Each structure stands twice: as C-alpha cells, then as structure tokens.
## 1
Amino acid sequence: MVKARVGSGYFVNTSIMESPLIYNSITENKFDEISYKKLKLSKRLPTAHEMEIFSIGENDYLWSIKRLRLVQNKITQLEQARLPVKLFPKITDSNVENSLQKYALSLGLEIDSYLTTYQAVSLASEDAQFLECKRSAPAMSITNRGFLKSGEVFVVSEILDINYQCTYHTKFNNESLQHRDQDDR
C-alpha cells in the first residue's frame, strides 16, 4: 500500500487505488495452502427469511453446509453456508471440501459481488470446540451474501474466524464527516 523511495520518503501506491481491500489474511494464501473439512452437508426447506434472501418458494430446497477452513493445516474458520438447490442441483463432499466460488464458476455461474459484514464476537462453547480454542475467545464474525450478475443471491455464509485481519484503503468522505458533526437541534 505504501512505497518507499530512497531519499524522497513514503508514498501511497496508486496502482492499488481501484480496490478498497488491500489485505485479507485468508486471501493472501494460495488455494493449495487452504483446505476444508466437511462437518455437515444436508438439503432442507428454507425459512421465511431465507425465502426472501434467495427469492425462492417454500418448497425450494437449500443446501446447508457446515465446514472448517484450515490455513496451512491450522483450523482458522468455522463456516456455515446455504446455497439454493435450483442453482446447485448436486453438491458432493468433494465440492464442500474445496472452494465454493470455484465450484459456482465451474457450473457457468457469473459471480458479480459480495455484501460482507464484519462483527467482533465471543465464541460460544460449541463453536469454540470446533475451532479448538477456549469458550468466549474473541473471533471475527464475517457474514457474506454472494450475488450473481443476474442479481440473484447464490450463497449466504456466516464465518467465525479466530485469526482474521484485513486492511482497507478508503477515500476521505467529507459529507459523512459533516453529517456526523451536525447538531441535531
């Protein structure tokens, strides 16, 4: 993100300005350094909330996946994901133990974007057991909704990460500063 020029100082690397995400501790690793361990794979009917998210009916099934993500053979994440069966007619253990993004692309789906929310949490006992750490240990809860170019949601996942770091580069937002500085009288 920052370039050093001998005798001149430090400067922002403008070649990265197009993408706000500069660093993500998971994506710095190559796929051969990341592995997955399936904990659960099942097909079930959606809740009312899931029917809204995926724009599906009450009789349209979802895949429900629970898996561990290991980075360099160390457990770092617990993921629970849901995918609509209408987009993924068949999911095998092998698909669950590999990249779901790569599987979606292999089916000809065109991924457009993700809506991601981060929140610091304390681990519940069951999650801590899966992640092999102490109950109430700090973790990052990362919720993702993946969108196709058609606008459809193709995946919703909730990830608990016990060793997460990310860095963003964002433009200064003067309007936001002014809005927050306004007196509400």
Note: Helices lie at 48-54, 93-96, 100-106, 125-131, 174-181.
## 2
Amino acid sequence: MNIVTRIWGTLISRPPFYVMAIFLLFMLLVPFLTDDLYLIGVLVLANVYAIFASSWDILSGYSGKENFGHTLFIGAGAYGAAYLNLYLGVPPMLNLLLCGLIGAVFGVLIGIPCLPLVGPYLALATMAAASIAERLTMILSKYTGGEEGLYGLDPITDGPVGDYYLSLILVIITTIILMAIGYSKQGLILRSIKEDETASEAAGINTTRYKLVAFAISAFFAGMGGAFYAHYQMYTGPSSLSIIMAVTIIIVCMIGGMGTIVGPVLAAYMLTVSNEFLRSIGDLRLLVYTGLLVVIVLFLPRGVFTVILERLPRFGQKSRGV
C-alpha cells in the first residue's frame, strides 16, 4: 500500500499527468456526445495505437535503444490470442493478460541477444526479427493461415461502445503504469543510459538488467494490445507483424515526443483521427498527411507535445510565485 501511495503521489505532482487525466476523462464522455459508430471505431483504433506507441516509448524513448521490431511483440500477442482462443477456448479477457506475458517472454528472448548491439545494429536486428516472424507466418501457413490469417476469434465485448470503453480502460491502465515507471528509479536510470551508457556503467549500474526489464515491460503491453486488437477484429494475420506498422508506431512517438509517454498517446489520437478524416479529400489525403508529418518533424523535431509539456512546469511554478 505504501508503494501504491508513493507512486500515486509522484504522478499527481507532475503536470503531464493532469493533461493526460483531463484528456482521458473527456474521452470517457465521447459515447454520450455522439452516436456515430464510425467515429467510435476510429477512436478504438486510436486507443490501440496509443497502447502500441506508449509501450514502444518506455523502452526506446527512455533508453534510446531503437527497437524497429515492436510488431514482433504485437504479433506474438495477436497470434497467441488466436491460438489460445480458437484451440483452447481461453476467454478474451484472460487472453489479454496471458498474451501480455507471451509478449514479455518474447521481449526477454529478443532482448538478451540484441541488447549488446548499439545504434543502427540494434534497430536492424529487431527489425530482422519481426520480418523473420512475418515470413514464418507464410512458410507455416498450415498453422498460421498464411496471408489469410486466422479467423473466428471471439469478440471481446458485445458491441462497438463496449470495445471503445474496454480499449480506453486499457489505455488508462497502460498510461498510468508506464508513467509511474518513467518517473521511478527505473525511468531515471533508463534516461541516464540514453544520455551516457558508459558513465552509467561506471557509476555501478547494471545497465543490461535495466534495459532487459524495459524490453520485457514494453513487450508485455505490446502483447496485450495485440491480443485486444486480434479479438476486436476477430482475426489476426501477417499485417500485425509488418514493418509498416512498426514504422507507423515510431512516427507516432516522434510526432508526440519520445520519452514522455503522454506525447505518444496524444499523438496516436491526433494522427489516427486526422488520417481517417482526410479520406474525404480522396487522393490528396496521402500528400496532405505526409506533408503535415514532414513539417512537424522539421520544425518540432522533439515532438509536438514535448514542447507543450515542457512549458507546464514553468507555468505552474510562476502561478505559485516561484
């Protein structure tokens, strides 16, 4: 109980937590403000990407260890959910936890050989691992369904609104836990590793252990998100392992601001919703969307929400006369 109280006290003392709390409270009201099921579906997708992006951020955003194979953990959760549900009859809600654990196991198995690598070598190794897994789904099509994937998973709730609220609850839980980790000793050490890993090791820190723990935590939430997405679609396939999804997650984190948790979550909503509503302009959608991303990367290289969040503490201090 003391640990929970201390974590909660740490969170509520941070202005980004209030930003996220206000935003998520508003999101809880969305089904009362609209009955547009298409919009609800778009927001479910945004919730899923918020989980994917924040789980990537706790590892790569904080420690600077570029993971280009995050979809390996997402796919492990998605395919794990399919096998557990279709062949063993495991209910969807239990699958979320079990597939989170499956993702964590994959995180450790990939992290052990890959963490000694640095720079682009780690990025290439993790990307290769995800690509190999995607290819294996084709080679082992007898068991994975190949390009068609696996169909017939049980729906996770009884309708779109239920899907929306469950996915939003998962976002809230994920965000609170990852923000708590980010503000904890673990998060501080990951930041020190990002700044100067050699100096951290010289200070007596077992950097490998902390990076491996971060890999497992990141993979757990990615696996859980993958399981939800599989049950939401009642299907999973090779797309859950694709490099396109991995790059999309990284873009979301870059736009939101890496190493903040809050930034990637807010960016997931901003980019997912804007991308869907730009469909109304037809073929120009890709041009406008890509142009927007390029402008943000050029003029706000540290992320849109990083700039905003950095001003909140100073505003708060001035308001208290500090």
Note: The first strand starts at residue 150 and ends at 151.
## 3
Amino acid sequence: MGGPLGVEVSVCYALPPVRGKLTHGAPLAPLVWFKSGGAAEWLFEPADVKDLSDFLYALDPSVPVMGLGLGSNMIVRDGGVPGVVVRLGKAFATVEQVDATTLQCGGGASGILVSSKARDAGIAGVEFLRSIPGTVGGFVRMNGGAYGRETSDVLVESEVVLRSGERRVLSRDDLGYTYRHSALPPGAIVVSATFRGEEGDPQAIQAEMDRIAAAREESQPLRSKTGGSTFKNPEGHKAWALVDAAGCRGLRRGDAQVSEKHCNFLLNLGSATSADIEALGEEVRAKVKAQSGVELEWEIQRVGVAE
C-alpha cells in the first residue's frame, strides 16, 4: 500500500511502545545537508539506550532500520525511507573525560563537540574530527577521517544496539575497519564510543583545530547545500583530480552541480531532487571511467527508494 509522502509500505506491522518520540511520515529533507529527498516511514528519537534496545527487540524483524546522524554524507532518495529511521538526540550528545587521554562519547555527539571537549581536557590526536560534519555514530560506522587521520586511529571500543535489540560492546578490531568502511551489520545503531588520544597542550590543540578549519574553509564549499566528499579516493589517486581531469568541474544536471571549488563535492543549487544529484554522480563516474579507466566508488550513502 502507499505510504506517507511517497514511501512504499510493503507490510503492515505494529510498533512497540516507546518513551521517546515516534513520528509517522517525517520529512527527512530538512535533516540532511542536501535538503532533498522524501520522508521516513517512521522516525524514532529514543529517550535513552534502553528505550532504543527495547524498541528494536520488540519490533517486527522484517522492518528495516537505519541510523541518521547529521545527514551530512547522505542522499535520501525522493521516494523516502521505508521502515524506521533512528535519530539520536540530546540524550546521546554527550562527551565525558575518562582519564588523561580518554573520552567517552555519545553516538549523537558532533565532531566539533568531541574535539572541543578534547582540547579543554588537554587530549591531542582527535583534532581531525573538527573537520568532519557528522556524529560519533557515523564516524564509527564509516571509519570517518580527514587530514591524515581516521576513526580507527583513536577508537578503543564502541557500544552498539544490534537490530535484534541486543546491546554489545565492540572493540576496534571487532569492527573490521578498512578505508571508509566497517563490518558493523545493517540496522545496528552506535550509541557510544571511547576515543583515546594523547596528552597535549590545549593551546597547541586549538592551533591545530584552527589550521584544519582554515584549510577546510579555503578548499571546500561549506556554505552550500552539499553532501561532503562524494567519492572515495581510489588507490593511488585523488578522486577530485580524476573528476577534474574528466572535465566534470562545474557539470550540471538541473539544479545539481559538481562544485567548481572542490570537484569531489556535489551541490544542490536550489531545487535539485535527490534523483538529479544521484544521476549527476553517476554521470561523473561514467566520465571518469571513460577518461582514466578508474571506477569511482560512492562515499556518500544513498538510501531509500526512488520516487
């Protein structure tokens, strides 16, 4: 049967009771950086970890579940996302110092919050998180990184709630990290992570954060509706250079455009649909393959169904 705002619902199911907030047909475009795409069949914002665990345990196993952070590296397709989208709110946006080099961070904490708390505590080594527009949950799942560092360099362990509702603590090695990828199973939600850096001087840490922020400001279209880095860097190559060499800088499809400032970024110039943005990305991949023989892999998550 037809679902809210284009979401196709293939099965009927009852939802378990929750203490948090459960919204039917929640528009996702306002929650993602591209500002495009359809609705979540259900959007769940749990009150705490137990609320999430109990909900997933009782939820029909056939219902798909997806986590949503800041929506910075994601295309939500125009037909929306069937099942349940889980978004961790303020209860999960916490950062606490454990010892001289260790932080315990909620899955909903932003990279800016984590790096700022680390600076205040004199913990160096996590400054790179300042430059990644996402949350701890996304960093852990995608092995997020920038400026020569990535999550696997600083992660000790992470607590996740599996699709079954089981709570489990996974070490860095359990997550099977590779470049921008982990072995975390679909439907699992990262609720916290422990990061370990090294003792450092808060002023020096702030200086490094300022350097990273300035470099990002200079090279990336930060004030645009974008999804961040679009394609993974292939072995031995920079994705942006391959895109540029294929003549794709500034390429447009409707209101979707390859950024002229950094051509591994796609932009929504105004009213681009998610279909426009994804099709532009596929056109870029085809042009790069034809020009260089290299097949670019998407780094941006593409979720949901076409309209």
Note: The longest strand covers residues 189-196.
